[in-house]
Write a sequence for this structure.
């Protein structure tokens, strides 16, 4: 398979990849087997985030030109392949409606490489019997549904109006007070007004990126890391550098190497921009 040229057009990168692959499939470039490269291999060749390629493959599947096979890979659909049996319908099926061109309406900053890591996470975790390591899909039997149901009933019976109304933007006051007291006990003197309770880790990461990241800043992350963090920092213009891990966490000696590499890439990018 030849190189795919990705340009700076308004079309998101994952769509550029998908359109290029669709053209190659039509030409029969993937041989008799029709097997496409793995998402990991293609992302390395193109120098893009793997989730960008995942999004491209999902689009190809939506177009009906590829078919994924668990454990085997993704394969081009040839004209002779049998189509899935259509659902029974008493009336003639209506022609498919064209999809809306949403990608052409988004800002350039929402490039596919920045948003795909959240929007195109492997949906295996949502399927019955599957466990996905691409996103946060907890095992259903570990969810505290009975305890949560009892707690919800208790709160609603005690004060339904207060429970269902908007609360303080900083978070539930008693919870913030408890967190501040706990941090103070751990030799980190904290006041309740210094505590902010978010609606999950993704909001917290985005707030950190907004507060501390300027376009072009280097952010060092564990490799592998949470794909939501990649999306958050890249959406604010940060350049990411992965740090290798061992059994005890980040390898200390990798910090200097990653920093020097990021600085070198920054100088190279600046030189090309100046040219």
């Amino acid at each position: 398979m030849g190189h795919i040229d990705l340009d700076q057009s308004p079309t998101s990168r994952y769509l550029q990849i998908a359109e290029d692959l669709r053209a190659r499939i039509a030409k029969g470039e993937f041989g008799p087997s029709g097997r496409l490269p793995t998402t990991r291999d293609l992302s390395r060749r193109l120098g893009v985030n793997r989730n960008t390629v995942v999004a491209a493959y999902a689009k190809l599947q939506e177009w009906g030109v590829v078919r994924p096979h668990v454990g085997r890979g993704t394969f081009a659909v040839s004209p002779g392949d049998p189509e899935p049996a259509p659902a029974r319908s008493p009336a003639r099926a209506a022609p498919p409606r064209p999809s809306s061109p949403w990608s052409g309406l988004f800002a350039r900053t929402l490039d596919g490489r920045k948003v795909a890591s959240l929007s195109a996470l492997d949906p295996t975790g949502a399927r019955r019997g599957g466990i996905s390591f691409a996103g946060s899909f907890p095992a259903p039997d570990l969810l505290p549904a009975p305890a949560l149901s009892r707690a919800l009933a208790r709160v609603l019976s005690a004060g339904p109006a207060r429970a269902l109304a908007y609360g303080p933007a900083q978070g539930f006051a008693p919870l913030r007070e408890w967190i501040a007291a706990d941090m103070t006990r751990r030799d980190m003197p904290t006041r309740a007004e210094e505590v902010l309770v978010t609606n999950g880790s993704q909001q917290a990461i985005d707030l950190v990126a907004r507060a501390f990241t300027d376009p072009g800043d280097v952010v060092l992350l564990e490799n592998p890391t949470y794909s939501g963090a990649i999306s958050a920092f890249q959406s604010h213009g940060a350049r990411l550098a992965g740090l290798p891990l061992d059994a005890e966490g980040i390898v200390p000696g990798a910090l200097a190497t990653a920093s020097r590499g990021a600085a070198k890439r920054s100088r190279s990018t600046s030189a090309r921009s100046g040219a």
In short: The first strand starts at residue 66 and ends at 69. The radius of gyration is 24 Å. Residues 1-80+108-121 form a domain with the Arc Repressor Mutant, subunit A fold (CATH 1.10.10.10). The chain has a mean pLDDT of 78.
